[in-house]
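Thread amino acids onto this structure.
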């Protein structure tokens, strides 16, 4: 992957984050990356069953 491609990906992510903020999804208990409902464990951490990301 070239530097220019990487820069384009970063710019695209920044633009789309402004359109749909991650915090809004987390407040609604949805994964910001795949819009799947998050599971909550006994320690209070939330995780996505699809992508495996963990949110505090």
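Threaded sequence (56 positions):
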């Amino acid at each position: 992957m070239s530097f220019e491609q990487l820069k384009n990906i970063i710019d695209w992510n920044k633009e789309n984050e402004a359109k749909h903020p991650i915090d809004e999804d987390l407040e609604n208990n949805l994964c910001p990356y795949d819009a799947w409902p998050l599971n909550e464990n006994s320690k209070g951490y939330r995780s996505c069953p699809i992508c495996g990301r963990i949110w505090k």
